[in-house]
Amino acid sequence: SLLRGDELKLLPSCWSSEFVRRSNSADVFISRELANFYLVDVSDECKDELEWLVEGLGGMTELTMVHRVENQELWLQYRHTRSTILRTRGEYIQPIEVKTVKEWMRGEYELVEGANEVLLLHGTAGKAASLICDQGFESRIGKLDKKYGAGIYFYDDIKKADEDCDTDSFGLRHVFLSRVTLGLPYLTSQHLRNHKKPPTVQGEVLDSVVASFEKNNDYVVYNQHQCYPELLLTYFSGRKYCGFSGKEGQE
Prior knowledge:
By secondary structure, the protein is of the alpha+beta class. Helices cover 23% and strands 29% of the residues. It is built from eight helices and 13 strands. β9 and β10 form a beta hairpin. One of its GO terms (molecular function) is NAD+ poly-ADP-ribosyltransferase activity. Its EC number is 2.4.2.-.
């Protein structure tokens, strides 16, 4: 479908796919004929700036590709949810610091601090990566018996995200650096099994769960429109390719 002019203004200015072709004189609207999303190579400079995200996996690890995910429908849904949380929660929110956001990234990615928007990691099996790019993260397939129930799980530690990846025949693994709007989070150090939404505090359902447990931080949202797969990072893991220990094939 064609984008209306007002919708076009809501897309990130850095997008360069065929959703929008920009000319010197005007924006030309392009219909989505071939795909719901586009994967766009980022610059070598951007890739180099993100190399540190996978360095925590140790030697024999190299960030080989970074693609920006440009999905018009998912973005507009995410942006609307972020705006709603900013409007309804903004005055109560205390911004959360995460290890996956360096100071320069706040401006580069135009993170909305007032909505507690952050960048976090989500590992995936290779076969599921394109599905996430197309349809977004799915909370409906989450298992209730997981540590914090049937939510969508993110991490600020590459080792945790890597546990949910698998290795393809070329030794490549995939993880998303995702926008996540945490809003007003429920902070805990306890498990919250069987939850389908964040806990209720003083009659209000909160927006997310931020859990510190066993020296790791887990970030969980239960609304798929509170997260957007910003970048798909592809990296070579020599350790996993050679069969060293690690969980395989979890989505």
